[in-house]
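Example record used in the benchmark description.
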Amino acid sequence: MGKLWMKPLGAVMVAGTLLVGGTAWVAPSNYAYAAEVQGVQQNVINVVGTGEIQVKPDIAYLSIGVNSTADTAASAQKANAAKIQKVSNLLKSTWKISADDIQTSQFYVQPNYTYSEKDGQKIKGYTAHHTLTVTYREMDKIGELLDAASQAGANNIENVRFTVEKPESFEAQVIEKAVANADVKAGAIAKAVKRQLGAVLSVSQGDANVPVFYASEALMSKAADSNGGTAIETGQVKVSTTLNITYEMK
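Model output (structure tokens):
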């Protein structure tokens, strides 16, 4: 007859915890393990690293609009449609901008009101508004293009927004800078508490989309070249990301 091996009751108690009076109880032989886990959790440094670079924009979004006012809504809309068509034809034919890069971003017809104590509020004509958002890639010709659009009838040019067409090409650079920034912070903390910095335990990205581009805007009224035309300065746009990094502390 073979031997029957029984697992000691004590081993079963060590493997788990027992709730007594609403509190967790750890078996005596499991104290060392619990202390070890707690120590690992305490011996870490959590920091946020930020990476940022400045890059030259290679694409612009131009806001080009037309307003028309008339006695009736239909008249205002008809007059505005003729103007916006003229501007659109200029962009496509003269400036060779693809129809895919010209999009209506805003359109409305609204009444204009006057007020007097005698008559109260009354409608006095209507204004039609149509705005095109134009994607343009020749940075040195933006001012000339906007001047041409104005001459063609665009009377509501608001701003120019600059950014980068392929942001993924800069992702590695901002991540490397964020890691370097985190290393400096974590190293300073470890040195201050007279400890040494260990290995990286975890990394997570703080941005929903990486990298993040902060587009710059140029207002039309702020720049003019020596010939009286509009001069647009592209400047640079900022690319940034953040990393949450946990380090081991020795």
